[in-house]
Amino acid sequence: MRTEFYGKRCPVCRNRFREGDNVVVCPVCGTPHHRECYEKENKCGVEEYHALGFVWKGNLPDEEPEITVEKEDNQFGAAGTENMNGAQADLGADPFAEMINRFKTPSLGEDGVSMKELMAYTSRSLYHYAQAFLVIRGDSGMKKRKTFFNICSGLLAPMHQFYRKMDLLGIIMIVVMLLPSLLIALNESYFVNNASFYYFFNFLSIAEQILLCLFGDYLYYRHAVKKIISIREKYIGDTNSDEYYETLELAGRPSLPRAIIGTLVFVLCSSLILIIPGVQ
Fold this sequence. Notes:
Distance between the termini: 88 Å
Strand content: under 5%
Structural class: mainly alpha
Radius of gyration: 26 Å
Helix content: 40-55%
Shape: elongated
Number of strands: 4
């Protein structure tokens, strides 16, 4: 066995190679396998990544780059870095590339979907939602939490919700945002004499926007998980196909027409509320 394979993982059984193991490499990407694992699968264990141009350089596609630590000058006066296996390594790995590699892992999370499926669903906005979903899921050693700041989710509501195809949430936001104006229009004299209610409604409006900025991505995550599970039921036994991931990408693609129609409905309802006093 070649020394560079020692301590690395077989992509099929996920066990590390040991001295004396019978190892073969994929002729396409160079990934090492136990011979019996390769012959059992009759294909490369990371074949799905060939189309992405993957070439084995010490780590599998779903493995994080090995952690490096700074070494002090040794007795020969040479400073360097050392990875967890004791081999020399370079610092300055691209954090975004590391995040994308983590996002391609096929393993399922607590909600029953993989980060690879989520990547396909949010491919048009991958940079933002890759970070948001990693935090929401608590992956890559991050502290799990439901908040991730997204200014568009709050300040552009309900247009943003319709743009992301969250139609039900968009409708709820229209009702919530217009309800104070409707109550004031129906009984204007009461609210004129009770200014505290007017300020209270303004405070609620601001609070709604702040909450959406903080929790909007979590709501979108729940929406994405539900949609992915629904689509997967139509591809039972075929969830590794290109067609499946293309369907996920199409389903998650933002909809500008939805955003325009939702905004027009919001503006129309606002205009109707303004003429209520005149109708009375």
